[in-house]
Design brief:
Layout: H1 5-14, H2 23-37, H3 44-64, H4 72-83, H5 91-94, H6 97-104, H7 112-122, E1 143-145, H8 148-152, H9 161-165, E2 167-169, H10 171-179
Antiparallel strand pairs: 1-2
Length: 180
Amino acid sequence: MASGFSAYIDLLINFSPRPIHSDEEYWKTQAVMDRLIDKAELTDDERDYLSLLGMLIERYDEDNKTHPELRGIVLIRALLNQTGLKQKDLVPIFKTESIVSAVLNGNRKLTIEHIEGLSKFFQLPHGLFFENHTSALPAEPILQFEHPAEEATFEDNLFSPLAQSNLRYQPEAALKMVST
């Protein structure tokens, strides 16, 4: 790669960062970020470019958040439920079923190797498998459903527009979670 300012220009020419307006643009931007993150070492230009792409992704996420953000173990459980997979289907990533069980039960943390394998297996960005910065879950739900019957099927319909439209954010519960 060229050095100095021209290296950054090369990155911009290869994939020009622009405000993200659709899921398709989001996933294209995320794919470029993933390729950079997978590199062993980044140049200063690549770090700056990655930072810019990250800001665009973050802005889109903030403007278009339509479902609760699932991360880490909660995301893995939801994905298993949504896809009909079993714990044993993750053994190639975790090496043994007991490790899969320990991770899903919260007795063991995900490693970088696990996150890499999960990202490839589910074809999702690496960042989604990192846990949220808060370790304790709130006693009260942050999201509540308009109709109690919908809560039982929420995980089954996690990404459906109907489930997304029936969620209501509960700021009091979120504040309690941050303050603990």
